[in-house]
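queue> pop job 88
queue> type: inverse folding (structure -> sequence)
queue> payload:
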């Protein structure tokens, strides 16, 4: 038996058990997809999507939810951020807003995540004089501080340069983040509204491709906030107070890769190649007996040529 025939025998021995198990693997994959879809549908139905006026006691504020949006309270927001988007637990979010036609599972979905930072104030003078390019470099250095963190994001730059609205006492900036394995960069659009004893933070998390649509929705999102009188603080914080925790602002994790993104990745390679790769990963051990047998035949044939 010549070398070419031996290699052909090896390929046949390896592929036959793999091809025989293709139907089983496809059935298993379909069952896994069905379980994920069922879980997502159950999760979606369990969310209490609210409208109208919603109170945020921690932030001393009321929100009049704009038309075209729904609101999730702190409990449901925590579930979305941790179970669907993969953030660490105890995010401290007071709530989230989504466009009415979007769900947390959509690849192009965007949301407004609400936090409150007590004890901070936006100093107009400091905000106007800050070196935002230096601040960007500082944030980039903080993200690179742990070389072992290969799953973390890279801050590529400002998607919207920081600017301060002195009339309304609102600070804006938008960061563009690149996450490993994500083809589209992530947008963290940060809006900080000053109150008597702290800052209400509206962090808009989205694919960076949604920036134009988000910019159009900013006016109704800002107009929805109404701060309530707070008897515990008669005056605003002193003018020497620092700008609200600028270097400490941390980005949220993006939504995990969706089924559509996974399908797109698989569609980039031929179906036959993708199937063989998948089967080899799942059933590599079935090819061991065939490989051992072929090695035995190869060495046996070599011995015959030498001694006979």
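queue> result:
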């Amino acid at each position: 038996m010549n070398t070419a025939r031996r290699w052909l025998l090896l390929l046949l021995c390896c592929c036959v058990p793999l091809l025989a198990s293709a139907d089983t693997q496809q059935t298993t994959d379909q069952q896994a997809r069905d379980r994920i879809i069922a879980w997502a549908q159950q999760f979606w139905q369990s969310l209490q999507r609210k409208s109208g006026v919603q109170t945020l006691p921690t932030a001393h504020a009321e929100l009049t939810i704009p038309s075209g949006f729904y609101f999730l309270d702190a409990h449901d927001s925590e579930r979305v951020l941790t179970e669907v988007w993969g953030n660490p637990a105890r995010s401290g979010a007071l709530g989230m807003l989504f466009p009415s036609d979007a769900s947390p599972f959509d690849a192009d979905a965007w949301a407004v995540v609400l936090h409150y930072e007590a004890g901070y104030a936006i100093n107009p003078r400091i905000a106007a004089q800050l070196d935002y390019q230096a601040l960007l470099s500082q944030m980039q250095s903080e993200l690179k501080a742990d070389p072992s963190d290969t799953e973390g994001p890279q801050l590529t730059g400002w998607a919207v340069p920081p600017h301060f609205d002195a009339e309304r006492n609102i600070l804006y900036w938008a960061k563009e983040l690149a996450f490993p394995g994500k083809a589209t960069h992530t947008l963290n659009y940060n809006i900080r509204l000053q109150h008597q004893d702290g800052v209400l933070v509206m962090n808009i998390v989205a694919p960076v491709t949604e920036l134009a649509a988000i910019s159009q929705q900013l006016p109704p999102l800002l107009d929805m906030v109404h701060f309530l009188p707070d008897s515990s603080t008669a005056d605003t914080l002193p003018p020497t107070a620092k700008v609200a925790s600028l270097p400490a602002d941390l980005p949220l994790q993006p939504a995990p890769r969706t089924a559509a993104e996974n399908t797109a990745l698989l569609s980039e390679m031929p179906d036959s190649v993708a199937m063989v790769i998948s089967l080899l990963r799942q059933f590599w051990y079935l090819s061991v007996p065939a490989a051992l047998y072929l090695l035995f035949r190869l060495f046996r044939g070599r011995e015959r040529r030498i001694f006979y």
